[in-house]
Design goal:
about 300 residues, 4-stranded antiparallel beta sheet, about 25% helix
């Protein structure tokens, strides 16, 4: 089939690779415009744009699908569009352009976690099982009928970055299989069934640790926001980044937010029992082991806000 591939971040790369490996012709790639990266804010192509350029594919860069983009897509004579984390809305006038529509790979078991951050919300909410779905894109938010799904066991130490990487690989195979089934008239999308939950994009504020919450809830939130938007707290009025923690149910005498070093481990009190810090990053410094940071802090009464 003649395919438009729409995607932007690195998690879309396995799908672009698998779609081509399955024998489909990717006639163009739609991705978001170059964005500033790093402290110097250097304009940088998206991971998908960089990979498409290396493969010699036509690249359409657009943060929104306007009339000019729609005209170009119309000229491509598309059989289908495969979309994975493109990062922009597809207007109704574009939905009808490919003969078989837009087929979306979404990293959840729909209708669970419709929205921009399904993996993050699944971890924050303590889901034991998650997965990926391919569905026919329509005007509603991730509401279209589903072609296929796969399931993935959530591991205790999964962060959103680690889990999303696994799902991006297995989901890529699912997407390629779905496109092949559509091409062979074997795919029958089924309306979504079950309870709907929403997964809106997370902001930096969602990464703030509330030490009065139970330890397990804190651990889940930190895992869910790692690496983006990142977990943080305040120390001395400045932002202090925190990486995944370990549960320490054996320590219950620390007030919420109070930190203490015991037998080489840096522990912090929560609303239930303590957690153990692993890696941290004080404002203006690089990431380092929690024990190394605590030794340098030289304080007995250290408390996070």
């Amino acid at each position: 089939m003649r395919i438009l591939f729409a995607g932007t971040p690195a998690v879309a790369l396995p799908s672009m690779r698998e779609v081509r490996r399955a024998g489909h012709e990717v006639v163009a790639v739609l991705t978001r415009e170059d964005a500033p990266v790093g402290r110097k804010k250097v304009l940088t192509p998206s991971p998908v744009a960089a990979a498409a350029a290396e493969a010699g594919l036509e690249i359409i860069k657009a943060n929104r699908i306007d009339q000019a983009v729609i005209k170009r897509l119309s000229d491509l004579d598309l059989d289908a569009a495969a979309i994975v984390a493109y990062g922009g809305l597809v207007p109704p006038s574009a939905l009808q352009l490919p003969r078989h529509g837009w087929i979306n790979l979404h990293f959840s078991l729909l209708p669970a976690w419709r929205g921009a951050a399904p993996v993050q919300h699944a971890l924050i909410n303590g889901d034991d099982i998650t997965g990926a779905s391919t569905f026919l894109l329509e005007e509603g938010l991730d509401s279209g009928p589903v072609f296929g799904t796969l399931t993935e066991q959530v591991r205790a130490e999964d962060t959103s970055g680690v889990l999303l990487e696994r799902l991006s690989e297995s989901g890529a195979v699912l997407l390629a299989q779905t496109l092949s089934a559509v091409d062979q008239s074997r795919a029958v999308p089924v309306p979504q069934q079950g309870d709907v939950s929403l997964a809106p994009k997370l902001s930096s504020a969602d990464g703030r640790i509330r030490w009065d919450r139970p330890a397990l809830a804190i651990k889940r939130r930190i895992n869910g926001v790692t690496p983006e938007p990142g977990a943080w707290t305040l120390w001395g009025g400045k932002r202090f980044k925190v990486w995944p923690v370990l549960l320490r149910p054996d320590v219950r005498d620390l007030p919420p937010g109070a930190a203490s070093e015991r037998d080489g481990a840096v522990l912090v009190g929560t609303g239930s029992h303590a957690v153990q810090l692993t890696e941290v990053q004080p404002a203006g410094r690089t990431k380092l082991a929690a024990a190394e940071w605590f030794r340098g802090a030289r304080r007995e009464d250290l408390v996070f806000e």
